[in-house]
Write a structure and sequence with these properties.
The chain is α/β, with parallel strands linked by helices. Helix content is 44%, strand content 15%. It has one domain: Aldolase class I (TIM Barrel). The protein has an 8-stranded parallel barrel with strand order 1-2-3-4-5-6-7-8, surrounded by 7 helices. The longest helix is centred in the C-terminal third of the chain and has 20 residues. Bound molecules: 2-phosphoglycolic acid.
Length: 252
């Protein structure tokens, strides 16, 4: 049995004081929902404020990115140990990082190894662009991102990885995939790529989320699929009622 998982990716939204407001409101609403692993991922600069408010709430905290090196001359970057002091989770290889900050599968893999070193639970994002989708490359792209991105960690750490399948064409567009289509990608491309690396048992143990225009209204469609274990939520994670409805749907 895989515990359902819902994470909010706030992206570059909310100041520190706005973060305090939203975390306080979300904590009040979400505390009644059990049986779901809940994670909020505000910007780096708000992590300390969020961590203080989330203490004892049963809601986890994650960063949206980190560097792979332990420390040193990397102006503007944040090291794994710094994230670990405040967070239990880190999003890696989000499509916006891949598209705007040139993150390759190799970089994502380095970051995954860095997460293992400090024992952060990584949420690794994979997904095809619209162009790749339209030219029938979904299998090839998603399989490659999974096997290149996830390779080489220990068999003890591997089951802790969370994968998010996020078709790029569905992110922030209001055009979500369908539950059935997303399930096919997870079942036929992502889990088999994991099985090749770590065996069938790990491939069945790893949580795989769907992401891309998830709302309170469509969440159920994804969560009712056998291979989808939750969601990585962008826009709707900034709205208390929507994020509550999504989390509630995951608990069912
Ligand atoms: P969205 O973003 O829910 O706003 O489409 C999802 C994501 O980028 O993780």
């Amino acid at each position: 049995m895989r515990t359902p998982f819902v994470a909010g990716n706030w992206k570059m939204n909310k100041t520190i004081s706005e973060t305090r407001e939203l975390v306080t409101a979300l904590t009040l609403k979400l505390k009644e929902i059990g049986g779901v692993e809940k994670v909020l991922c505000p910007p780096f600069i708000s992590l300390a404020a969020a961590a203080a408010l989330l203490e004892g709430s049963g809601i986890g905290l994650g960063a949206q990115n980190m560097h792979w090196e332990e420390k040193g001359a990397y102006t503007g970057e944040v090291a794994p140990a710094m994230v670990k002091e405040l967070c239990g989770y880190v999003i890696l290889g989000h499509s916006e990082r891949r598209a705007y900050f040139s993150e390759s599968d190799e970089i994502v893999n380095r970051k995954l190894h860095a997460a293992q070193k400090v024992n952060l639970t990584p949420i690794v994002c994979v997904g095809e662009t619209l162009e790749q989708y339209e030219s029938n490359q979904t299998r090839e792209v998603v399989s490659r991102q999974t096997s290149q991105g996830l390779k080489g960690v220990t068999s003890e750490f591997a089951p802790q990885i969370v994968v998010a399948y996020e078709p790029v064409w569905a992110i922030g567009t209001g055009k979500a995939s369908t539950g059935e289509a997303a399930n096919v990608v997870v079942r036929d491309f992502i889990r088999p790529a994991i099985a090749e690396l770590y065996g069938q048992q790990t491939a069945q143990a790893i949580r795989v989320l769907y992401g891309g225009s998830v709302t309170g209204a469509n969440a159920e469609e994804f969560f009712s699929q056998p291979d989808i274990d939750g969601a990585l939520v962008g826009g709707a994670s900034l709205k208390v009622d929507d994020f509550y409805a999504i989390t509630k749907a995951a608990a069912r």
